[in-house]
Amino acid sequence: MQGRPTSRITIPSWAWEREHTAEFLRRRDVQALFQFVRQYGGASQMAISAATGLSQGRVSEILNGRKTVTAFEVYERIAEGISMPDTPRMLFGLAPRSPGAFTGHESAAPSAVPSLPAQRSPGPGEVSKVRRREFVGLAGTALFQATGGSMLDMDEIAAALTRYAGAGRSTARAATSLRELAQRAHSAKVGYQACHYTTVAKQLPELLRNLDDAATGVDGDDVAQVHALRAEAYHVAASLLLKCEERGLSYLAADRSMRAAEDSENPAVVGASARAFTRALMRERHYKAATELATSTAERVDSAMDEPTPESLSVYGSLLLSGAVSAAKREDRDQALNLFDEAGDAGERLGGDFNYQWTAFGPTNVLLHRVSAAVELGDAGSAIDYARQVQLDNIKVMERRVTLFIDAARAYQQWGKTEHAYHALRNAEEMASEELTTRPVVHQLINDIRTRASGHLYGNVSELAERVGA
Questions:
Q1: Which of 310, 347, 406, 424 lies at a C-alpha separation of 20 to 30 Å from 77?
Q2: Is residue 221 very low, low, confident or very high in pLDDT (cuts 50, 70, 90)?
Q3: Contact 347, 315 (CB under 8 A)
Q4: How many angstroms separate the most distant Cα atoms in the chain?
């Protein structure tokens, strides 16, 4: 019988740094990990059982190769029980425990806000050898298959994220291809917002490598532009990785986006990248840190402009929406409602629904986020009421439109209206099937709906599950 972890195991830091350790962590080989724990932590099967909450019989079966681990929460519990450090956690496909890890602002407190650097952060060629080794150790990490998994192969993106910038670059080409890089970055963002995730996943690795190389081969006015493009491309990578539940790498991509944004010295770019980092924090349930990062960056964007531009106002409002959803996730209704009201005011000031700085911000987007927050608060009725107020023709970005139907499906499922939940997902599938095939969290939703379905509905949901690989 599965229990709760009751004790922890301590392993010397040098043991985690061995290359052999990195190899089995990349493979997520729990059998090898338990053998490692026994060798370097001096832990018996009983001690591993107590630390991880697994039964002693299950531990024995894993050690003998008769059982494997596939559930994400078990990976998390094992890492927690053996006090796995942040770098090995990322090798293992988990996000670091500290929100500030790998941002240069690490804090022992899980709720600490990863502050934005006041000074220009080091350029790609100035990254320390220690950090380079930490990042390079992630190369080759594959996408975690949580609930049937995503159909996207993330190995190439992982390799691009963990590559040392500047390796093998051509200064002449980097200096003359900035316009081409801008077009490719634009294409990646357009593709992401259109839910063409397979295409974007294939575009990103080379784009990230080329942009990192270009950052070391330009000067003058081009420096700020190339860093803004890097921030945008890494933002796309972080967003795609978050959808695919690749938690460790999404955290790393969000960190890279924020660093590049700081180097661009453009407040609107910084704010846009902070949105990605906020989502990464939310994914790890660091809701307080996510809310504080979103609101403090929104204030920073607002105070940086004497008069708000459409871009800065859109970023400002989008950050408030991120903060509102994060506040809802930590069940702080008052803060969530206040932030929604502030974002609503920003939407009214903007005067409509636009896609400045790739935010898709406006009054409609405020309403879409109210739907998401109501679902997070378990208020299914309010979520559906908000959803019914949305004018679909006002949603120009397909990714946002499909997300609305997925949120509606979640609300209907909470409400016990299983058939309505199924039809909402069918609408989402017809609009952008990759939103369903790519996202493990949607797979889980489909399987939850199937457990409540019966008769013809059960057959329909089963067919949907088969089509999307749930």
A1: 406
A2: confident
A3: no
A4: 67
d(CA 273, CA 257): 6
Of 157, 265, 272, 143, nearest in space to 209 by CA: 157
Residue with tokens 């199924």: 422
Q: How far apart are CA 266 and CA 294, in angstroms?
A: 17
Taking residue 206's Cβ as centre, other Cβ atoms within 10 Å add up to 12
Q: Which amino acid is at 403?
A: T
Query: Whole-angstrom Cα distance, residue 145 to residue 33?
Result: 19
Rounded Cα gap, residues 443 and 283, in angstroms = 17
Please answer whether residues 226 and 255 qualify as being in contact, where contact means their C-beta atoms are separated by less than 8 angstroms: no
Give CA torsion, residues 140, 144, 148, 149, to 10 deg. Answer: -70
Lowest mean pLDDT among 5-19, 296-310, 351-365, 417-431: 5-19
Amino acid identity at 393? D
Q: What is the pLDDT of residues 108-137, one digit of tens each?
A: 333 333 333 333 333 434 333 333 334 333
Measured distance CA(436)–CA(430) in Å, rounded: 10
Of 70, 89, 97, the C-alpha closest to 25 is 89
Q: In this predicted structure, what is the pLDDT of residue 146?
A: 34
User: Rounded to an integer, what distance in angstroms lies between the CA atom of residue 192 and that of residue 210?
Assistant: 19
Alpha helices in 330-454 (DSSP H): 333-350, 363-376, 380-389, 398-415, 418-431, 434-438, 440-452
Phi and psi at 15, nearest 5°, equal -70, -35
- DSSP letter (8 states) at residue 263: H
**Residue 61 neighbours by CB distance under 10 Å:** 15
pLDDT for residue 214 is more than 50:
yes
- Residue 150 is predicted with a pLDDT of 46
C-alpha 411/C-alpha 382 separation (Å) is 9
Contact in structure between 235 and 220 (CB atoms under 8 Å): no
Confidence of residue 401 (pLDDT cuts 50, 70, 90): very high
CB 449 within 8 A of CB 425: yes
Residue 390 tokens, joined: 């949305």
Residue with tokens 């890279």: 256
Residue 314, token pair as written in the block: 């859109």
Q: How do residues 79-102 score in pLDDT, each as one tens digit?
A: 989 999 888 887 787 767 765 544
pLDDT reported for residue 74: 85
- State the alpha helices, DSSP H only, in 377-417: 380-389, 398-415
Contact between residue 151 and residue 438 where contact means Cβ atoms under 8 Å apart = yes
Please report which confidence band the pLDDT of residue 177 belongs to, taking 50, 70 and 90 as the band edges: confident
SS3 for 464? helix
Residue 282: Cβ within 10 Å count:
22
Q: Give the global pTM.
A: 0.71
Which one-letter DSSP state was computed for residue 392?
G
Handedness of CA 285, 290, 292, 293 (dihedral sign): positive
